[in-house]
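Marked as duplicate of an earlier ticket. Keeping the data here for the record.
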Amino acid sequence: MIEAVIFDMDGVLADSEPLIKASAVQMYREKGHTVQPDDFNPFVGTGELRFIGGVAEKYGIELDLEEAKARTYEIYLELVPKELRPYPGGKELFDACRARGLKLALASSADRMKIDANLDHIDLKPTIWDAIVSGEEVTRKKPAPDIFMIAASKIGVNPGACVVIEDAVHGVQAAKSAGMFCVGVAQTFPKEDLAEADWVVESLKEITVDLLTAF
């Protein structure tokens, strides 16, 4: 019996992946380096330090990762009011789950400042969630299961009674390692990349509470 739904944020509720990639590309450009948005794909969902640092390793670039992350977030937060868009169906699914009495948590590898900025902008305010877990709260990032296990603990639900909604390969792997049912949403990566998920859809609009609670 499903008792809770745990949402990832970037690429699930908010179309933020292109913005954080563009922000990181600009940060690298300011430091005199040319990188491409697709360079970041292998590191999506692993937290911004790995997201930025993985590309630095690829090109042999030496960076102060904390400073680079801070600058990337500065650029990103300037883009949010003008360019961030919610994915269709996210608010409706949240509201339907709430009406059904399910616990609702958000587990994102991003820092809390990014989470709050995104949620405020897409009308899913931080205060309406039963729990929020940020990347700052976990040492082992996705694909380790830690972030989802902490989310389940915070809302007092057994991991086996949780559904995770994810868009990234690392996130799907983390959810399955946590012993949770996983819905992969192919909004960032193609469906075939999310084959480890229990159910893969192309849009949040395909997910209903009746379908989630049938598992």
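See parent ticket for discussion. The chain has two domains: 4-15+85-212, 17-83.
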